[in-house]
Every structure is written in C-alpha cells, then in structure tokens.
Amino acid sequence: MNQLDRLRTTANAQSRGYQFEQLLTRCLEADGLDVVRNSRAVPGRQNDLLVQSEHIALLIEARWRNSRCNIAQISDMRDRLRSARPGVIGALFSMSGFTEEAVRSVESQRNPEILLFGEEDIVQLIEGTPLERLVDRKRGALLARGRSLPPEKRKHRARAAASGALKIKLNDGTTVPSVRSRTASLSELVLSIDLQDVTWNVARSRGVAVLCRLEIETIDQLRHVLERARHKLGMSSSGAFSIQQVTGAAWFGFGSDHLLRELQNHPSRYAATKLPARHHSEEFAYHAESSGQGLVIVSGRQRLKRSVVTDVELLIWLPGIPVDARRLRELLRELDQEHAYFSDLHGDEYFGARFREQVRLEPIGAVLKGAELVCGLVCRNPFFGEPAKLARALGLKSIGHPIAGIAGFEHVVCSLDDWIDDGEVADYYFLTQVESATTPTTSLVRLAATWNQIVS
User: Fold this and answer.
1) Other Cβ atoms within 10 Å of 256 Cβ, number
2) Is there a contact between 283 and 243 (Cβ–Cβ < 8 Å)?
3) Which band of pLDDT confidence, cut at 50, 70 and 90, is reported for residue 133?
4) What is the average per-residue pLDDT within 361-373?
5) Per-residue pLDDT for 456 more than 90?
6) pLDDT > 70: what percent of the chain?
7) How far apart (Å, rounded) are the C-alpha atoms in residues 318 and 314?
C-alpha cells in the first residue's frame, strides 16, 4: 500500500501512469501470470499489458489520470478487442474511477467482454488477492446481476476499510453483541463477512500453521491470550466469533470483547433460548486477520456450570514461514509455547461457488462498519434444515462439510458485495456466492449477498 500512497503524491499524470503500470506488472508477475508490456496482441495496435495464464487472457489498459475513465475509453477498448483473437477479455484498471455512462455501457453491451477494476479492486490485487479470483467475481457479478460493481459502492468499501468496529443492529434499532440462532445440527462453523484469502498456493502448499494447546481455565486468561495476539501479531479485534450448543442453539457476532462478554453472560443467554435441555458445555471460536496477511483462530470449550474454559487452541495460519519471526516467537514464549513448530499445510482448504438462481433474503438486522455503513446482513436462512435445496441453488449435485453446515442454522450472517449507507432502503436482497476455508481447528464460511435497487 505504501507504493500506492507514494504515487498519489506524484503531480505529473504521465509519470504517475507509467509507474502505476509498472506496479501492476510486478503484482501480476508475482501472481504467477505471464505479462507482456506493450504487446501487439491486436494487429497494428500497441497495448498496455497482455496478461495470460492457463485459464484467462486479458488485454489490460492501466490509467491513473485526473479525470474518470469515460465512454471514449470503453469504445476504444471495444475496437481493440474486435481485432484480437477470440477469448481475450478487456480490462480497464482506473484509480480515478469510471463515469456512470462508462459503467452503463459495459453493463448493457457485453460483447466483447470488458471488466472494470477500480481503486478497491486494485488495492486487493496489490495486497495479494489473485487476479483470477477478482476476474471470477467481476464476471459473476455481470452474469448474475447484470452489473459491474458501481464505483460509488466501491468507494464506500475503500473508505470503510480503514477504521470502524463491526456491530449488529436489528431491524427494531437495537444493537446487540450477538445473534442467536436455532440449529438443526451441530456445525462447527464461523460465519464471517470477510474471509481472508487462503489460496496462497506457494509450491503446492496452502501455507504453514502453528497450532498450540493452551493450558488456561478462566475467561480472564482467554482475554490475555487475545490481547497478546493482538499486540504481537496485529490480530484484528473485530473478527467473527461463534458459540454453539449441541442441543439446538448458536450465537454469532463480531469483536473479541463481545465474545468474552457473551461467554461470561451465558446464564442470560440460555435463559432467553428456553431450551428444554442443554449440554454441560459449549464450543466457541474466534477468527481474525493478522497484519502479516494470515489468520489467527482461537477456539475452545466452556463448561457452563463452573464457567471454566478448556481445550483452548491457538492456530496461527500464514502464507509461509516469516523471515522475521521475532514477534511470533515472543508471543509463543509469553504463552509458554516455546516448543511450538510450523507445519506445512496441503490440500483443498478453499471452496467457492456462485448461486445459479436468485435466492432472496429476509433480513432481520444489519452489520455496520463504524456508525454509517452497512457491510453485511443478518437474515433468516432460506436453506434452514434443507441442505439439498442449498446444493440445487449452487448448481451442485451434492455438498459436503463445511458448506452443508450452513443449512444447520435458522439465521445466517451475509456480507454485502455493495455496501450502502445506514438508512438506505433496498427493494430486496439476494445471495450471490459462498466461500469456505477449512482450517485444522474450525471452518470459516462467508455468504455474500447484494441488493437489487435502492429505493430510498
């Protein structure tokens, strides 16, 4: 990100544009893609970048000017693509955004295919999100909703990403630390609105992990673990958590402080459920990103009668072994885990699929970022108790864990692809995709949704 910040201070637009193109080239090459600058993929024309992999071929024009990309640039890209070989997709990368006319043109005329990448998309690419993943999301948005993500919504996301805790606001206006859900089965999932990319895929590896069993018993000791992970690893304090009871109840929320509060307040939580019976313990898990582009997951069990936490595990999942591991070693030493070691992870930890049909949602609340932006929804689960219905909506013959576990919850949390201001009203919301990441201790799931039209 410092590279982008430095370019923002470059007054000369031509110099800034050239350096921006160089930055994109380095990021794409680091992603394992074949990049040709000033290629002649279109006969008689010189283009910015031709990017190829086994699966895609993109003709990229990179722009960072003082004005937004307009319909003239869209028309020029169409002219280039009509002379290119079949299968080449056009891509416009613009840090200055796009005019509404340009966006409408791309959405209404999809042959030849053009994708628009704005500031937030570029930030994600620089931070390590694979280009093919971004392309899939763009193409899916056009296919499912007929929309290229609106620039003003991407601006909302970029502005909110810098600061602001997550909180849940119900439809009646009350703010709650968690949402209770009936369960049809025990599914050890954490429903998140922001799933860190775990497909690092370095030399066929899915990264490395340090897994520690912590000898702690009290919630105060658990608080200490979370505080030290936040201090030493830059773990976010706005991560997602789940608490699950085997006899038919679960709670979802955000923030390590809210997790600790809900664990302490288990008598009032269970009094509100009116469960005819309950197991003597409950499972909990907290998932958050670290500043080193990794994941930190703290999970365990609380014995309700004595309010004792047991079987607590700390999982630190990283793209690779850090060159400078001093702060990690300091954390492990403070937690009496100096014997811990890295394990190489292999296999298909990531799963993603788009909904083939428009599944509408019934929101009962919203997830707010800071005080003004809606970045997620709390909804009644349209697949509660019906995993086969979920599979059909995804166009799959069958689904396994962890995706099938979604059907076990009466209520679910969904992230919004297009954020809106608190107070804006949409005519309806619908699901767009689902992602999951399976870790050695728990499974993380992100359901994504969007709105059809803002009516007020």
Assistant:
1) 23
2) yes
3) confident
4) 90
5) no
6) 88
7) 13
**Short-list 445, 125, 447, CA closest to 287:** 445
- Rounded CA separation 314/319 (Å): 17
103 vs 42: which has the higher pLDDT: 103
Radius of gyration of the chain (CA): 23
pLDDT tens, position by position, 14-72: 788 888 888 899 888 888 888 987 655 555 454 578 998 877 889 999 988 878 889 99
- Pairing mode, strands 360-369 and 166-170: antiparallel
Q: Which residues pair with 360 in a beta bridge?
A: 430
Degrees (nearest 5) of the Cα angle 157, 159, 163?
A: 105
Whole-angstrom CA distances from 328 to 14, 238, 318, 336, 375 are 43, 20, 11, 12, 31
Residues 23, 131: Cα–Cα separation, whole Å? 14
Please, which residues have CB within 8 angstroms of residue 280's CB and are 6 or more apart in sequence? Answer: 303, 304, 305
CA quadruple 242, 246, 247, 253: dihedral, nearest 10: 0
* Helix or strand holding residue 240 (H, E): strand 240-245
pTM over 0.70: no
Please provide residue 269's backbone torsions phi and psi, each rounded to the nearest 5 degrees. -60, -45
CB burial of residue 409 (10 Å; 0-12, 13-18, 19+) = buried
Express each pLDDT in 294-346 by its tens digit.
889 999 999 998 889 999 999 998 888 888 899 999 999 999 999 999 988 76
Residue type, 43: P
- 129-139 CB burial, b ≥16 within 10 A, e <16: bbbbbbbbbbb
| Interval 66-80 mean pLDDT | 89
DSSP secondary-structure letter at 323?
Answer: S
At residue 29, φ and ψ (nearest 5 deg) are: -65, -35
Q: Among residues 282, 272, 283, 280, which one has the least CA distance to residue 305?
A: 280
pLDDT of residue 134: 85
Q: Is the dihedral of CA 376, 378, 381, 382 positive or negative?
A: negative
> Do the Cβ atoms of 343 and 208 come closer than 8 Å?
yes
C-alpha 66/C-alpha 16 separation (Å) is 11
For the chain, list the domains and their CATH numbers: 2-159 (3.40.1350.10), 163-171+350-451 (no CATH), 194-247+256-344 (3.60.90)
